[in-house]
Structures are given as structure tokens and as C-alpha cells.
Amino acid sequence: MFKRFIYLLAAASFIFGGIAARAQDAGALLDLLVRKKIISDQEAEEVRVELTKEAAATSAGKWKLSTPITELELYGDARLRYEYRSGQTEGGVSPPNDWQERKRERYRLRIGLRGVLADDWFFGVRLETSQNPRSTNVTFGDDTSTTSGSTTTINGPFAKNSDGINVGQAYLGYRGFKDITLTGGKMPNPLITTLMTWDADINPEGTAEQWKHTFTFNFGGGGVEQAQQSYAKDSKNLAITKTSEPWKLNVDLFANFAQFIYDDVNPENPVGAPRTSGGKLVPTTDAWLLAWQVGARFTFPNNLYAQLAPTLYNYTGNGDTFNGHYVGGDPALSNSDSLNTNQVGINSLLVFDMPMEIGWKIGELPVRIFGDFAVNFEADDRAKAAGFPGKGDQRYAYQIGAGIGQLKAKHDWQLQAFWQHTEQFSLDPNLVDSDFFDSRVNIEGVVVQAGYALSDAVIFNLSYGYGWTADKSLGTGGTGDIGINPLNKYQIFQADLNVKF
Amino acid sequence: MKRIYLSLITIISLIDSAYADRLVIKGSDTLGAKLVPQLAEQFKAQHPGTTFDIAAEGSTTGIAAIIDGTAQIGMSSRRAKSSEIGAASAKGINMKPTIVAYDGIAVIVNAGNPVKSLTKKQVEQIFTGEITDWSAVGGSGGKISIYTRNTSSGTYSDFKELAMKKRDYAPGSQKMAGNEQIASEVGRNPAGIGYVGMAYTKAGGVKVVSIDGASPSIQSVQNHSYPYWRPTFYYTNGEPGGVAKTFVDFTLSSVGQKIVNQVGFVPIK
Among A363, A399, A397, which Cα is nearest to A379's? Predict the structure, then answer.
């Protein structure tokens, strides 16, 4: 009889909780009942076993996680997108004023597991659609046929040839040292960046070391101060007192270092004579991208913050794919010949980059002004190798923008706009954002974006970007979706419906 | 005639022994090293013909034996895990716990160690490897040698939960098969620290440290004021029957609980 009472009590206490949660939470309740001598230890143990048995019979109770896992999160998102993208050849390029456009209905899926293991280790795995390193999008209906050599195979409508799943992230890390995070594998970008220098879909491969420490400075103040007077119902004066907060500054100092494997040539030492080209040995060293970032985020009272993250990027080795000298197109050539010049070489890139941001709130609305500045210290050599020796001054890239609002909960909204200018020899064209502006450099343009949260997990976004050739005597280096170089009057429109889980 | 008579006696004895009660008990070393064998001896005196098959290789083995039906009683110094209860249910086994004694897990150091008391935080820090030198806790200095039970031990799991907030043991901790082995190693090593059931604190060369001012005793364990108290169990498949029920009842009786007290555990009343 008493045992039945205990069952009812436990059930009533957790009536809205899952049964698995009840089994876990019941321990505290049973311990309390034992301490109060309402039930005996024996009765408590029998109830514990019954609740555990019930939990084990549920679908949640059948989940088994291996013992080293202390925390596990399943997450991801799915997106539907309509995209219009177009561009025009520059006046002198043959064919002149020609136009290419793409209209695509697309989707993407990203599903990940990340977790914490015992002893301060952590891991993450994420599966993504698309093989493109700068995109997870798949276009509906783009695989109705496939051509290999002179053979075309009709796959039919709704084929799955382009709908494969790839490993987007697979990494392991360690947080056992105070303030330090070590990560290895194919990882989310550990650096603070903007779309000007890095596409947000890139998951670099290699190792990263991150350090972050928060310093808090109190500048006194605070206490109680007497404010204006007010009047109570009985007409007597009331002094309203208010408490002011002490003036506090939080400084997050951070340092992020990364060693990314950009291009791994294998075998480094092949059997037989080494490869030559044009009478010269073809270099076979692996190419690495090294990043050195230090920065600070200052958080002031009243939601004001500022962040700077100066970064140096340098490249070592040559690799196999990117070891040719970058040209980036030439308006003196026909469009097809311009496209066929080297768009991907990583020679002579020593880039200093400084993403910046300040933010505050207007009422409850977050506002931010953001920007980025980059300069390639070896632009003279890069321009000379490209065949444009007088264009070493095309070494800078800038971005400035502003945003208001946020997209965290239902009915939230956000507006954002930025202007960007990238010069031909300023940045690595293999990393810049693939949407704005079509993975190119030597482009100047504006982007406006608006978002609205239809629910906590569903967000609707509209984006529009317009760009033009910055220096018309050069090509627009990089490999994009629009087959035009130099690319002018570039337009992109995207309507996205994004579901997060 | 005499030969026929003797043969008949022999045959009757053999038949009798074939039908004698056999009780298979597997599991916890904490219970099975001393307590249950002594209970068994006393029980046999009252129930001649009963044979015991006791294997004390860790609480996990005792619970597993109930699930796979190879024992009538599973001794355990820890609660069955949800995965074990789930596995039992899937096989139609009804895991029934019976608390047979309380125990306090005592933290022991070498008798020559000047440290007499530790806080709960210090115990956690020592056994997880955060603190590695005796000087950090008021000792003479020197690297701390940690002795723990192995992973099939209920005491290993209980200590991890009660004293270490489920954090992992320090990588350099040395795993011992039983309470007596831990007591023996700590007794020999001036820098040693380990944990044992209360029944094993009388070993030579060791002493018990108090935890936040509380020492393990009958009173502090019965009123749960000692932080590392725990129930110990017999697990059976549902309500025990036959000789198993008789033995469980005997363990819970005043005679059985007197043996519990004599061995060094804490009676349930």
C-alpha cells in the first residue's frame, strides 16, 4: 500500500517529464523520503528498480551510449533555396556585353553529432550534402543526365546522382589545459573571419590551437543613489532610490593558431625520376596554410562591445593543384581564354587580415557595425608572376557593413548590409565567399540581407548582392558559377527557408 | 550381510547428497570475501546438507549471473545500472534488490602519513589526479600513489559516484582486485592512498582519514551522515524461493545481522 503511494507520488511529481527523466529525478525524491523517514531504504531501492525498468522499456531508455561519452548533441539544419545569379562580360571582352544567368532551386542538409568524452576530450562529426568545399547546396534536377567522354546516360527525373552525402566535419579535440582548446581533423573554422576572406561553408583540415582568457576590470561606482521624487497616493513625497551597477569591463583576450593542410602531394618521393615540366623539376612539397590570429573582445556595460582579430596568413610548400602562378583572367583575352588562365595559384600570398566589429543595443535590439581590412604584403610578386608587373598596388581588400536585429527566437528579425571591395592580388581566391561575389576577387559591390524567424527553429532569409569589376584592366580571379572573366554587373538573389534542429 | 548393509548405507548417502540444497552466490568482493562466507558457515550449521558455491569477482559479475541465470543470489556493493535492469527485463528477469547491510567506504592512508583528515573536494582532487603531491593536503610531500579497485568492482563505481562526481580516476592509479589487496598495498606504501569497505579498515599499516570531519562508524553510516555510505545488496530474480529465500531471511535476521556487525559492516537496523 505504501509502495503504491510512493509510485503515485513519484508519478505526480514528474507527470510532465519523460519517463526516462522521472527515473533519473526520482533518486533525489526517494533520498528525501528516506531522510524524512517516510520510507525505508529497502522501499526506496524497490521503487528505483521499478522506475528504471519502466524507463528501460521506453524508446528513450533503449538508447545506449558508450561509457566514455559524457555528453552528446544531435544537431543540424535543412534549407530550401531559390537563387538567381547572373553576370555580364566587360565591354572589350569577346563576346562583348554577353550575359549569363543561373536560376536554381536548391536544398542543403547538414546533420552532425558532437560530444564530450571523459577526460576533457571532445569530438564532432557532420555529414553534408555537396562535394563543393564552399557550398553545401544541391540543385534540384541537375542530374537528369551524366556525360562521360562521348557517352551520355539519361538518369531520369529526380535522380540522386548529385544528392550524395559527404563528410563535412570529422574532428577530435582536447580541453584539458586551462583556457586552451586543441583540435585536429576536418573542423569548423576556428578563426574569426568574415565572408570577405573565408566562405562560411569551408571546414578546413589540419590542426588548431586556441587560447582564450577573460580579464575583468572593475572601475568602482555602483551603490545606491537617490533619483527623482515621486508621489504616493496619499500625496506624500516618495524618494525613489535606484541602484547603479559598478562600471565593469570584460576583456576576452584570445589567440588562434592553425596549420591547415591545403594540398597534400602523394607520393612525395615517387619511384623513378622526379617529374619535370619545361625542363624544370616539378615541386612536390605539400602546401600548408598557416594562420596566426590574436585578438580581443571588449565588453563594456550596457551591452556595448568591440572586437578586433588581427590575423596573418602565410602559405608554405607548393602542393600539386595550386602550384601554378596565379593570373586571374585578362580582359585582353577572349572570355574563354581568360577563364582558362590560372585562377587558383597560391603563390606570393602573405595576407594580413583584420576583421572588426562593434555592437550595442537600442532598447532590446542588437546593432552592430562590422568590417574587415586585408593586405597582401607580397602583392608585387604576385602581380608580376601574373604578368601584370605594374599592378602590385592591387593588394587591398575592405569590407564595411552594419546590421540590426537578431534571429534567435520566433518573430525576431534582422537587417544587414555591407559594401566590399577586393583587389585582384589581395586575397586567396580559393577561400573567399562563393555567393558574394561568385568566389571572385577584383570585385566591388554591395549586399543587403533581411531575415525573419517564423518560429524558434525556422528562419526565412532574403539576400541580394550586386557587384562590378573593381579594376577594369584586370580579370576577376577565382572559380565561380558564372563562366565570365572579367565578371561585371554581377547579381545574386537568394530566398532561403532554413530549419534548424 | 555386513557388506550388503554397508553398500546400502553408501547408496543412501549418495542419493541424499544428490538432493542436498546447493546455493550459488556470485558477485561483490566486498561482501563475498568475508561476510557471505561467514554467513554461509553459520547457515550450514543450522541447515546441514546445504552447500555453497561462492564466487566473489566483483559486483558486475554478480548482477550478470542473475541475468544469465547462473546464480541464485547476486551479491552487489552497488546499485544495478539501468542498462543491467533493462537487459534483465528484456530476458524476463525481474531484478529484485534486498539491502543486506550498509557499508561505509573508508579512505585509508598509510599509518605513518601525518594526514588525518581530508575534505570531500580534496578526495575528489586526489583520486582524479588534480592533486598529485601530499604537500598540497597537509602531508609531508611526495607523489601520491593511488590504489583503486578494478572496473568490475561495485566499490569502484560507488566511489566514483560518491566521491568523484563521476569523473575518471587519475591515469596513474593502480587497480587492485579486492579490498584486502588495496589495504595491503597502502599499508606498505608510505605515499599510498586508497579506499576500502569498513570491514577492511583493521588491516595492519593503514589508518582511516575523516572526510569533512566525519569518520565511518555504525552510527554515521546508519544515519547517512558519513558522506561515503552505501547499501549493499543481494539481487535475486524476483522474490527468492527455496534455499535462497531461507538464506536471505537468515542474513536479515538478528543472527545474520550480528555476523554483519562482527565482520565490520553496518547492520540494517
Answer: A397
Using the CB atoms, write b or e for B68-84: b if 16+ within 10 Å. eeebbbbbbbbbbebeb
Distance from CA of B3 to the nearest CA of A (A): 57
Tell me the average pLDDT across A420-443. Answer: 97
Q: Is A411 exposed, middle or buried (0-12, 13-18, 19+ CB in 10 A)?
A: exposed
Q: Where are the domains of chain A?
A: 2-62, 69-225+246-269+283-500
B83 CB neighbours in chain A (<8 A) are 56, 64
Q: How confident is the model at residue B9 (pLDDT cuts 50, 70, 90)?
A: low
* Helix segments in chain B, DSSP class H: 2-18, 29-32, 35-46, 59-67, 82-90, 120-128, 154-163, 179-188, 218-222, 242-252, 254-263
Q: Give burial (CB, 10 Å; 0-12/13-18/19+) of A82.
A: middle
Tell me if B85 and A119 make a contact (CB, 8 A cut-off): no
B254 touches chain A (CB under 8 A): no
Instruction: Give me the pLDDT at residue A237, please.
Output: 47
The answer to whether residue A283 scores a pLDDT higher than 80 is no
Residue listed under C-alpha cell 610531500: B141
Q: What are A's interface residues with B at a Cβ cutoff of 8 A? A: 23, 34-35, 41-42, 45-46, 48-49, 52-53, 55-57, 61-62, 64, 118-119
A161 three-state secondary structure: coil
pLDDT tens digit string along A261-271?
Answer: 999 877 777 77
CA atoms within 13 A on the CB side of A35: 8
Task: Answer whether B79 touches A (CB < 8 Å).
Answer: yes
Q: What is the pLDDT of residues B166-224, one digit of tens each?
A: 888 898 899 998 889 999 999 999 999 999 988 889 889 999 999 999 999 999 999 88
- Name the β-bridge partners of A217: A249
Parallel, antiparallel or unpaired: strands A365-376 and A350-362: antiparallel
Q: Which of A41, A52, A53 sits opposite B99 (nearest CB)?
A: A41
* Chain A contacts in chain B segment 193-222 (CB below 8 A): none
Count CB atoms within 10 A of the CB of residue B182: 27
CB pairs under 8 A between A and B: 45
- Kindly determine whether residue A118 and residue B168, on different chains, have CB atoms separated by under 8 Å: yes
Tell if the CB–CB gap between A61 and B95 is shorter than 8 Å.
no
Confidence at residue A144, expressed as pLDDT on a 0 to 100 scale: 87
What is the structure's pLDDT at B51? 93
CA distance B224 to chain A (A): 8
CA distances from A58 to A159, A268, B174 (A): 38, 55, 39
Name the pairing type of β-strands B145-149 and B174-176.
Answer: parallel
DSSP string, A380-441: HHHHHHHT-GGGTT--EEEEEEEEEE--SSTT-EEEEEEEEEE-TTTS-TTTS-SSTTTT-S
Average pLDDT, chain B: 90
Is B172 at the interface with chain A, CB within 8 A? no
CB contact, 8 Å: B268 with chain A? yes
Cell numbers placing A1: 500500500
Delineate the domains of chain B, giving CATH numbers in brackets: 2-102+231-263 (3.40.190.10), 103-222 (3.40.190.10)
pLDDT in tens, A213-234: 999 888 765 544 444 444 444 4
Phi-psi region of B170 (alpha: psi -120 to 50; beta: other; left: phi over 0): beta
Element (H, E) at B100: strand B95-110
| C-alpha distance from B45 to closest chain A C-alpha (Å) | 28
Alpha-carbon span B160 to A491, nearest angstrom: 61
Can you tell me the distance from the alpha carbon of A171 to that of A185, in angstroms, rounded to the nearest whole number?
A: 4
Q: Is the pLDDT of residue B63 over 70?
A: yes
CA B124, B125, B126, B129 torsion-angle sign: positive
- How many Å lie between the alpha carbon of A52 and the closest alpha carbon of chain B? 6
The class level of CATH for A69-225+246-269+283-500 reads mainly beta
